[in-house]
Design a protein that fits this description.
Blueprint: H1 4-26, H2 33-46, E1 50-59, E2 62-64, E3 81-90, E4 93-102, H3 107-126, H4 133-145, E5 150-151, E6 156-159, E7 170-172, E8 188-191, E9 194-196, E10 202-213, H5 223-236, E11 240-241, H6 243-249, H7 254-266, E12 270-278, E13 284-286, E14 289-293, E15 299-301
Helix pairs in contact: 1-2, 3-4
The structure holds manganese (II) ion (2 copies).
Length: 305
């Protein structure tokens, strides 16, 4: 019998696999981001898990953090690189995984996906107790460079802890010896290389679609806002959420969601995540898996079939 929490990671991993499979099937030019996003998130719930962050559906030069907003009308385009990044948790144990769809199977864009995939596979191969995190970055960058592309250096993998998506340690997407910590039994990480033809750096975009509850602030707050604040904390804890979820769960009347979140942002009750855009607006591919090292030192890739 394996450690019980490993089973929870595997259960979260299965939910993520199911959501990615559904995304692959539903992504067709002309369909809406909103409908696909909602269906993939519902698939995670159907698998008996909870969402650990809103689905990310980031197109071309947007590397991460586009999630369909309420009433989003955006349609899947005829071509481009669409990154689908999904997260589930069971009992707080999080699986985080992403892949990239080459909408019209453009061979030039396929190279970006292959670069990210080869980088991730190489890092997973090396992922065992005793390896230093920058050594994973080193193989990631090598693989991506060998396909004539660059890895994005200010994005990277991260440690996963219970109910904590970005917990402490960082896996760089290049050889950076600052990250000299060692992988140990019991550790869990998401590893996520990004490949681009750009300079290999992301900057904040103009917009944001993902929020996270930080802390209560009841000072000078109308009674109603305090109720909304409590509901957000109760429902999402400290994990990222989408305004769509507030609407779907009826936590705040629809016509008040935008204003309430604006107020909560200004009072530092919630934090926001800007879209992350490649600095030179070049296309980006991402591949991501969750890797757990069990107490015996075995490597378990929870989001791989
Ligand atoms: Mn992810
Ligand atoms: Mn991640």
């Amino acid at each position: 019998m394996k450690d019980e929490y490993i089973q929870d990671y595997i259960k979260a991993g299965k939910a993520v696999i199911a959501a990615k499979k559904l995304a692959k099937k539903l992504i067709i030019p002309g369909e809406t981001f909103l409908e696909i996003g909602n269906k993939c998130e519902a698939e995670i719930i159907k698998s008996g898990c909870d969402l650990s962050f809103p689905i990310n559906m980031s197109l071309n030069e947007i590397a991460a953090h586009y999630s369909p907003p309420i009433d989003d009308q955006t349609l899947i385009p005829e071509k481009g690189l669409l990154k689908i990044d999904v997260g589930a948790h069971y009992n707080g144990y999080i699986a985080d995984s992403a892949f990239t769809i080459n909408i019209d199977e453009d061979p030039k864009l396929q190279n970006y996906i292959e670069a990210a995939k080869e980088a991730l596979d190489a890092a997973i191969e090396k992922f065992e107790p005793g390896v230093q995190l920058y050594e994973l970055g080193e193989v990631i960058e090598e693989k991506i460079l060998s396909r004539g592309l660059r890895s994005i250096k200010n994005l990277g993998g991260h440690e996963l802890k219970r109910y904590n998506l970005h917990a402490g340690l960082f896996i760089p997407n290049y050889k950076n010896k600052i990250h000299n910590q060692i992988v140990k039994p019991g550790d869990a990480f998401a590893c996520e290389p990004f490949a681009t033809s750009g300079v290999g750096e992301v900057v904040n975009g103009q917009y944001y679609y993902i929020y996270r509850f930080l802390k209560k602030n009841k000072k000078n707050m109308p009674y109603e806002d305090i109720a909304f604040m409590n509901r957000i904390e109760e429902n999402f804890g400290r994990l990222p959420f989408s305004p769509r979820w507030i609407e779907n769960k009826g936590l705040i009347p629809k016509n008040k969601i935008k204003m309430t979140l604006r107020t909560f942002k200004s009072k530092k009750i919630v934090d926001i995540y800007y879209t992350l855009v490649e600095k030179t607006k070049e296309p980006v591919a991402q591949e991501e898996h969750t890797i757990v090292i069990d107490m015996d030192g075995n490597r378990i890739v929870t989001t791989k079939e």
